[in-house]
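Preliminary data (for renewal application), FE2/S2 (inorganic) cluster complex.
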Amino acid sequence: MVRVIVDGAPVDVPPGSSALQACEAAGKEIPRFCYHERLSVAGNCRMCLVEVARAPKPVASCGFPVSEGMQIFTDTEVVRRARRAVMEFLLINHPLDCPICDQGGECDLQDQAYGYGSGISRYKEDKRAVTDKDLGPLVKTVMTRCIQCTRCVRFSTEVAGTPELGLVSRGENAEITTYVEKALTSELSGNLIDVCPVGALTAKPSAFHARSWEYKKTDSVDVMDALGTNIQVQARGGEVMRIVPRVNDDVNEEWLSDKGRFSIDGLKRKRLDRPWVRVHGKLSAVSWKDALIALARRFDGVPGDKVGAIAGDLCDAESLCAIKDLLQGIGSSNLDCRQDGAWYDTSARSGYLFNSDVSGIDQADALLLVGAMPRHESPVLNARIRKRFVDAGRGGFPIGMIGAPTADMTYDVNVLGHGPDVLADLLSGKNAFAEVLKNAKKPMIIVGHSALTRRDAPAIYAACRELAQTCGALSADWHGLNILHTAASRVGALDLGFLPGPHGCDAASMLRGGVEILWLLGADDVQLERIPPETFVVYLGHHGDAAAKRADIILPGAAYTEKSGTYVNTAGRVQRAFRAVFPPGDAREDWRIIRAFSEVLGHTLPYDTLEQLRAHMAQVNPVFAQTGQGAPRLAGAEGGLASEATAREGELMTTPFRPVIRDYYQTNAISRASQTMAECSKVYGVAPVVAAE
Amino acid sequence: MSTAWTPAAQPDSFVFDAASEEEIAGVLCKYPEERKASAVMPLLYIVQRQMGRVTGSAWVPVVAMDVVAQRLGMASMRVYEVASFYTMFNTRPIGRYHLQVCTTTPCWLRGSDDVVAACQKATGIQHFGETSADGLFTMTEVECLGACANAPILQVDDDFYEDMDAERTAAVIAELRAGRRPEPGPAINRSVSAPVGGRKTLLPSSTADQK
Ligand code: SF4
Ligand code: FES
Ligand code: FES
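Predicted structure:
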């Protein structure tokens, strides 16, 4: 530790810290524009000037390394005057358009100008104007407002790994641009809006919709992928206006994927806002009471084991738990949360988790991706891999991949082959990458759903497990065999044991007529065309997507922003989301609907409040007792009430992995309803299908 | 698809020719393989010279920047940044001869205005940055070329013409128009940047001897 004196008070900081970090550690706020904790230091805005004893002039604290006994002064007349001068220069070419600027109210420049700006301008010359750039459907630009801090350039280069933005030309003519006009091709481009300290980069879809101080802010969890990105839902007048990330170093650092941020217009379109019942082949709107009674009547006389439920990708654990209890209450064990037909080793919780945790990526020193395409399956996690790749330096983090990448991975990958047969070669040492894994101290294997949704998934998993064992990925202090989930609800569902019981049907056989009444809990991505016409389909969900069209009864539920829910991320982290707005119309929170129906059916569920339900969940699986940021992740805890056998050995097939996500922007009911996402798919296109052999 | 910096008309492709390849090999061998991005400026010059050789207009089109980026294993954007930062890389087409007039204070005091006027008169160009109607000349204003002792300076492509005045400028341009390149260097009776008319100090019979 290095001891420095900030404004007379000693503070200890790790060696290599900057003066700015030392000041922060001492609780002094230093104004900054170009400095950003998660980006490299540029030192080009000069707003962070401080005085250092014996330095001849004020120094830019963000790039000034601390030394033992250094004395820093953050609030002297010299410092104040220096910062005022910097501010005057910054404002020379900055337009005075705060009243029509979307950043107004949350603009660093506005805030700092309040402290350091002069009331009048001495500048009489012409201001410069910069042409706006077209960066695609998500990021709006007003480039005259840019103060050339280059945060956006550093973000896209360093974090996103898509170096498409740059500062071209020089001096008076310098501007941020893609040079050749094109849309940014990053799934993280929305974060540019957050890193830009001024209103140069703002959100295009919500341009001019609201002011930052009008929002009601609610903490929530993103459900667009399985990472469980911590978000804040910002609403006004019962409408979700904006979603921004919250900082959580164990999960998403401070980034959010574009789908998580911009799908919100999908929350307003194609919503189910009243119950519907199919009468003589036509859906007609009915009241809740009629719907539940009609449904209970349909249940009449149907044996319990002829009822089944399939859960979708966006469900909260509460509704999963309720429906499971309901079905078990009537004697059914036809439950499945794997609408994509994935296979997991459910003998222990570690069989289906991202065991090393997301932050474990920072320690890994070799990586093998098996049928995973993290860039599309979890862009923020992909950024974490990239961060590790960049930090490790040349050759420090070798990455092998089995399966053809459908996009640039943003880091160098060694594509070892396209099918699982490569695993056999790795096991026998025939493939040179086996050596790399063996030599690594903390090797990591990420198994994705391209591998787990195949017929030979058990064999693939068994091979991965064996490989992990032989290369030392499974030691006392390191569990490097990771599953990358794509569905936000999946791990929670597995933890609750939302799987077919001993004699229960799985999703595929339920769809093929294995049950008489099929309850789809937000399951839109099942093969609906397989359902025989005589199966009675109940759809409980929030969007009039494909499944609702097939349904015989539609029960309108709440989307993730409209309910308090628990979600377990791919790493097994149990997180709570809070309700930001109310569901539209007659739609209700899903678990309450199930609870109400259970009463009509005469199998009343033993909980009346959310607290009781959650207490019950904690009984089903103790992991649900551990929530919130900083709560320990029960990686080793025994999972669920799973009944599935462990790795059933089988033959590895040679057919290449097929990507599970072909169009990143439209993967679930909400994003499919979003016009913004539809436009993105149009602009960015669909990933090409890998030719089957 | 163009921005303020990229002219609308861009060639569709760019390939280094044999002469350029030879130059590139000579440049690249100076850098370790994993640091070859350092060769970006020499390579951009090679592009510019090849364009001059082949098309008569020494500029760097966007495709060529992409080719350089690919060759050096760097992002295209990084090449765009370099090419647009340095004024010596022409990011838009220019005439066959690039007349670069220094107008910084020493040259200006020594009559760079006359040089500019002579260039305008001889080529018909009105303003800096323009190309003559016949496509032969582009005139740009440059800052100090570091040859102030011989001010004013007219730089044509890579050559310095020194001690210019209106008449000499016209003569240089006339020669260029005729397809010849006059000898660069001082235009008056002096050797490089030595004083006019020979040495003024440190003469053989030094004052020290007389004392
Ligand atoms: S656009 Fe924003 S982030 Fe980018 S350089 Fe300008 S002010 Fe900084
Ligand atoms: S924050 Fe230090 S120079 Fe910009
Ligand atoms: S001022 Fe013209 S060369 Fe220096």
